[in-house]
Write a structure and sequence with these properties.
The complex is a heterodimer of chains A (129) and B (363). Chain A is built from 3 helices and 5 strands, in the order αβαββαββ. Chain A is an alpha+beta fold and 129 residues long. In chain B, helix 4 packs antiparallel against helix 5. Chain B is α+β, with helices and mostly antiparallel strands and 363 residues long. Chain B has a single domain, classed as Cytochrome-c3 Hydrogenase, chain B (Orthogonal Bundle), CATH 1.10.645.10. In chain B, strands 1-2-3 form a 3-stranded antiparallel β-sheet. In chain B, strands 6-7-8 form a 3-stranded antiparallel β-sheet. Chain B has a two-stranded antiparallel sheet with strand order 4-5. The chains are: A alpha+beta (129), B alpha+beta (363).
Chain lengths: 129, 363
């Protein structure tokens, strides 16, 4: 009985001491809106289109149906739209794009007041505008 | 004196039901007479969705079946497509996949330790495990681009070569001492022992009859670890963790030991990757990918038990039927049996010890 009590007290003390030691450690969290952590290049955030040739592969690999585009009679892309309401940021389009025209940027704060702001429209497809 | 039986709804929105699980308990006093789990609050139609999408469109979605261990499910789908196309993946890809899977297993078990202790009322370990899990998730973000929805394994290989191996080295050098810290706080704590020892006894027979797999089964003394027969893990030296306790405490201890074993596997993978050449792989073109007519099956040892995927293809670019087997689904069913005769205040501890993840149950 005595040994059991001793062991219990010892175990509790060890646990408490381990927790107590954390008081003197540096904080590991960041105060978010003021401080932001640095994101790496691979981060998959808001997509960006530049130099689309309109092959349609992105549309075929997109699981959410978030991509729409239109070509004129010369075969030039005149309208390219990302619907961020549907986009799940999987990065399939960027990975399979044969021209590397789609890039996933590190922008992740995408809340807007007006939901039309979530339609990313790139007129012409070639330049980002 | 007359006694009445009380029907009590535990959940669906309860801090310790890990998602949305509703348990309909029938109580006499504080004793549980019967338990009826009610699932489906998180149903997203994962299997039906597969019938509408091509294989490459479906691949990013399978990470969401179990958001704590997404790699395991993408690995299953990749394995099915690779076996159907008759493609052998190179050794380096195999080792990269093992590294990611085992890191993911550690991350999943870490979160379980925190959540389980939170269920029992201890808050400090919850923050400590998140600190360590964050290291792993940051590494995943560097490699795959996102913290939980990785979409990193693709048919025939991985999206890009592995980098930042020094981060993994740091993780495996820091983790063992941190796990020691958890053990100091938790394992011998008399309050923790009183709440978990001999609670939720799962006998080997019951476990096998209820198709329980994974750590829960091994903590009941049954030696069944799918990794030993897995082609992916061939060449890795590790042992399965078998404990005889059968109770909630053993299930906790088994997960702690399993994390340490995973660190061993990661060390071996790291040794290989450091000496390896740049990645050379032959990816399967995803456009117009059609699996030949037939049935395909793949299984893997996920953190919550055996996970498997069954695909029937009729030669089209979409599966005719796709079925997932997830470990938690069977653990929820087990609650009917092991909560019977226990007390209400132990119900949370027992349900927590089974490591139930609801998105995996409802799919």
């Amino acid at each position: 009985m005595c040994i059991k009590v001793f062991n219990s007290v010892k175990a509790l003390w060890e646990g408490m001491w381990t927790v107590f030691k954390h008081l003197f450690k540096r904080a590991v969290t960041l105060e978010y809106p003021e401080k932001r952590r640095k994101l790496n290049d691979a981060f998959r955030g808001k997509p960006l289109v530049e130099g689309c040739i309109g092959c349609g592969i992105c549309k075929r690999v997109c699981p959410a149906g978030a991509i729409e585009y239109e070509k004129n009679e010369d075969g030039k892309v005149v309208f390219y739209k990302f619907d961020l309401k549907k986009c799940i940021f999987c990065g399939n389009c960027a990975f399979y794009c044969p021209k590397g025209a789609i890039k996933m940027t590190d922008e992740y704060e995408l809340a807007v007041q007006d939901k039309d702001g979530l339609n990313l429209v790139y007129k012409g497809g070639a330049e980002n505008d | 004196m007359t006694t009445t039986r009380l029907k009590l709804n535990l959940g669906p929105q309860h801090p310790s039901t890990h998602g949305v699980l509703r348990l309909l308990l029938e109580l006499e006093g504080e004793k549980i007479l019967s338990c009826e789990p009610d699932i489906g609050y998180l149903h997203r139609g994962m299997e039906k969705m597969a019938e509408k999408l091509s294989y490459i469109q479906y691949l990013p979605l399978v990470d969401r079946i179990d958001y704590l261990a997404g790699f395991f499910y993408s690995e299953l789908l990749c394995r099915i497509v690779e076996s159907a196309c008759g493609i052998e993946i190179p050794d380096k890809v195999k080792v990269i996949r093992v590294l990611m899977l085992e890191l993911n297993r550690i991350a999943s078990h870490l979160l379980w330790v925190g959540a389980f202790l939170m269920d029992l009322g201890a808050t400090s370990p919850y923050f400590y495990v998140f600190r360590e899990r964050e290291m792993i998730l940051r590494y995943f973000e560097k490699i795959t681009g996102q913290r939980m929805m990785y979409n990193y394994f693709i048919f025939g290989g991985v999206r890009k070569d592995i980098e930042f191996l020094e981060d993994v080295e740091e993780i495996i050098s820091v983790l063992p001492s941190k796990i020691d810290d958890y053990e100091k706080i938790i394992t011998d704590n008399p309050i923790f022992i009183r709440r978990t020892e001999n609670k939720g006894i799962l006998s080997p027979d019951t476990a096998v009859n209820f198709a329980i797999t994974g750590v829960n089964l091994r903590a009941s003394g049954v030696d069944y670890d799918c990794r030993h027969t897995d082609e992916l893990y061939r060449g890795f030296d590790f042992k399965s963790i078998i404990l005889d306790g059968k109770d909630a405490w053993s299930r906790y201890k088994a997960r702690i030991l399993e994390m340490r074993e995973s660190i061993n596997i990661i060390k071996q993978a790291l040794d290989y990757l450091k000496k390896s050449n740049p990645l050379e792989q032959r990816l399967i073109p995803p456009i117009n990918l059609k699996l030949p007519e037939g049935d395909y099956y793949a299984e893997i040892e996920a953190p919550r038990g055996l996970a498997s995927c069954y695909v029937r293809s009729d030669g089209e670019d979409k599966p005719y039927r796709l079925k997932w087997r997830t470990g938690s689904y069977y653990s929820v069913n087990l609650l009917r049996r092991i909560l019977k005769g226990e007390y209400l205040n132990d119900a949370i501890a027992i349900a927590g010890s089974l490591d139930i993840i609801l998105p995996e149950v409802d799919k």
